[in-house]
Design brief:
This protein is of the alpha+beta class. The protein has two domains: 181 residues, Copper type II, ascorbate-dependent monooxygenase, N-terminal domain (Jelly Rolls, Sandwich); 161 residues, Jelly Rolls. It has five helices and 26 strands. The strands form six sheets. Strands 1, 2, 3, 5, 8, 9, 11, 12, 18, 23 and 26 form an eleven-stranded mixed beta sheet that branches. The longest helix has 24 residues. It starts with a helix and ends with a helix.
């Protein structure tokens, strides 16, 4: 084959590949378009693709790569960045996470912009490494390894005084930030997220144990996008069936990401099995994760018919979004019992004229007596 003919064939193949790629891209969901677009922009360095890390006496800060806002990105849809980090890999030192904060900034000026551009910030531990260091191997795989999540409406949170989460300075963790845009349609901007982790070196802090509970609502797996005709309680229409789909012991399909209709609705989920309490535990912190149009989110002790935590998020009045989502903090703690049943109740008020999406979870933090014994033994040996 001549050089000229070879170049012609190569050009044709490149053109065909480009056409196929364009067709593939435009058939993706908004969420997957954001993933592909962000990876290409970062790989080609068309926008800033580097993370930055800095430290001070009482905190570590991380600045994300640039995230391009060029479309409406509802919850779970926006461009995101993620990376494994250590706080300080030059030494192995026991530190305590006592609070976290995430904020949005303009990528060029580093000035603060609306936190409406924050979908969520997640920190996941590496279970094998974290629990292996403490010889708590029975905890590996016991639940999803998410330590904490801050999200739209709750971009800052502190553990109660005297409590924290123990982590070694050279221990790996996984940091994720994702952008959000419910309202801006007339401009394109680049943003970054600043993440701050407050730390302490005190030897008197009590450890907290995280547990995540979330609402799951039943749907018809064979006809998922219509409400069943029968009396299936709390039935929902899932946003999709590939992600956030679960099954209970009876094989019933459940969704953790579903549609809410216009007007007011109430949803309930029994979370007793999610909590899986084996002993009485003291709850000291609860951080909710909600989407816009949530109006009330309640953690209930069904056995005692009492409210443990009642969250009233504030929605924006002139645009879509959550202005504030109060969390729960208690230094003295609230006791939860293994023989009791617990429930999450969510009320929504969709004031828009179209269906919207919803998720509802709580990141709960209990006093960790077993870890406290481990920490005291470690401190006595150091």
């Amino acid at each position: 084959m001549s050089l000229k003919k070879g170049l012609k064939v190569f050009s044709i193949l490149c053109f065909v590949g480009l056409v196929i790629g364009v067709i593939y891209y435009f058939n993706l969901s908004n969420r997957h378009k954001a993933i592909v677009k962000t990876r290409i922009l970062h790989a080609l360095n068309l926008i800033d693709s580097e993370w930055e890390k800095n430290s001070s006496v009482n905190s570590f800060t991380f600045q994300s790569p640039s995230l391009l806002i060029d479309n409406i990105y509802k919850s779970m849809e926006g461009p995101k960045a993620y990376k494994y980090f250590t706080l300080d890999d030059t030494k192995s030192e026991l530190l305590w996470i006592t609070g976290l904060d995430v904020s949005a900034i303009h990528n060029k000026t580093n000035t603060s912009i609306s936190n409406d551009f924050i979908c969520h910030m997640n920190i996941d531990i590496v279970e094998q490494e974290h629990f292996g260091r403490w010889n708590l191997l029975n905890r590996i795989g016991s639940q999803f390894p998410r330590l904490i999540s801050l999200s739209h409406g709750i971009e800052s949170s502190q553990f109660p005084e005297g409590y924290g989460y123990p982590i070694f300075s050279d221990e790996s963790f996984f940091l994720t930030t994702q952008a959000l845009n419910h309202n801006i349609t007339d401009s394109t901007i680049q943003i970054k997220h600043n993440v701050s982790i407050d730390i302490s070196k005190s030897k008197t802090i009590k450890p907290l144990k995280p547990k995540t509970v979330f609402m799951m609502l039943p749907f018809d797996i064979n006809n998922p996008y219509e409400i069943p005709d029968d009396d299936m309680q709390n039935a929902c229409i899932p946003m999709e069936t590939k992600n956030h789909t679960y099954y209970n012991a009876n094989g019933q399909a459940l969704s953790g990401h579903w549609k809410i209709f216009t007007g007011k609705q109430t949803f309930k989920t029994n979370i007793t099995n999610q909590l899986a309490l084996k002993d009485t535990m003291s709850l000291h912190k609860a951080i909710p994760h909600l989407h816009p149009f949530a109006s009330q989110f309640t953690l209930v002790d069904k056995t005692s018919d009492s409210i443990i935590y009642n969250c009233f998020p504030k929605n924006h009045k002139d645009k879509i979004g959550l202005g504030a989502t109060p969390d729960f903090t208690s230094k003295t703690g609230v006791l939860l019992y293994p023989e009791h049943e617990y429930e999450l109740i969510l009320k929504t008020n969709n004031t828009s004229d179209i269906d919207q999406d919803m998720m509802a979870s709580m990141f709960l933090f209990f006093y960790d007596e077993e870890m406290d014994i481990k920490v005291k033994a470690y401190n006595n040996g150091n």
